[in-house]
Structure formats: structure tokens, C-alpha cells
Amino acid sequence: MQKLNWGNFEDIGIALYEKFPDLDPANVRFTDLHKWITELDEFDDDPMKSNESKLEAIQMAWIEEYQDNH
Fold first, then answer.
1. Who contacts 12 (Cβ-Cβ below 8 Å, separation ≥6)?
2. 4 φ, ψ to 5°?
3. Alpha-carbon span 46 to 67, nearest angstrom
4. Nearest to 34 by CA among 19, 22, 21, 49
5. What is the DSSP string of the chain?
6. How high does pLDDT run on average in the chain?
7. Using CA atoms, how far apart are residues 62 and 15, in angstroms rounded to an integer?
8. What global pTM score does this model have?
9. Whole-angstrom Cα distance, residue 64 to residue 39?
10. What structural domains and CATH numbers belong to the chain?
11. Looking at residue 2, what is its pLDDT?
């Protein structure tokens, strides 16, 4: 299993979609997004290294995955 870090926007977006397939990511707050990312089994990075642009990129990847499957 590949370990994920803050730079793996697409892979994290897919992992979040797989964990929460019915949740519309467009309505997720960044505080919840950060918590859920750091709780992923595959996530292996410093939780403090995130920032708004990284969270936004991950959210966009998750939205794309969600839209492709709904």
C-alpha cells in the first residue's frame, strides 16, 4: 500500500471518495477535511505541513472523483 503525503492530491481525493462515497465534498469544511485526511490509514506525513492551497487541491480532486461517479 502506497503511503500518502500532502503532495498526493489526486490519490488522497480518491481515498476520501472511497471512504465517504455518498458525501458531497463541495460542502466539506477545511477543518473536517484536514482531520479526515490525517486519519486515512495510508496517510503518512506531518499534519502540520498542510495549508489552505493543499487542502483546496485535495478537495478539488475529491470533487472531481465524486462527480465522475455520480
1. 4, 37, 40, 43, 58, 61, 62
2. -105, 145
3. 29
4. 49
5. ---B-TT-HHHHHHHHHHHSTTS-GGG--HHHHHHHHHHSTTB-S-GGG--HHHHHHHHHHHHHHHHHT-
6. 97
7. 8
8. 0.94
9. 21
10. 9-68 (1.10.10.600)
11. 82
Q: What is the pLDDT of residues 7-58, one digit of tens each?
A: 999 999 999 999 999 999 999 999 999 999 999 999 999 999 999 999 999 9
Cα separation, 57 vs 63, whole angstroms: 10
- Single-letter amino acid code for the residue at 28: V
For residue 23, report the phi and psi dihedrals to the nearest 5 degrees: -90, 125
Q: What is the CA radius of gyration of the chain?
A: 11
| Residue 57 neighbours by CB distance under 10 Å | 16
Q: Under a CB-based contact definition with an 8 Å cutoff, are residues 32 and 66 in contact?
A: no
Per-residue pLDDT, 1? 63
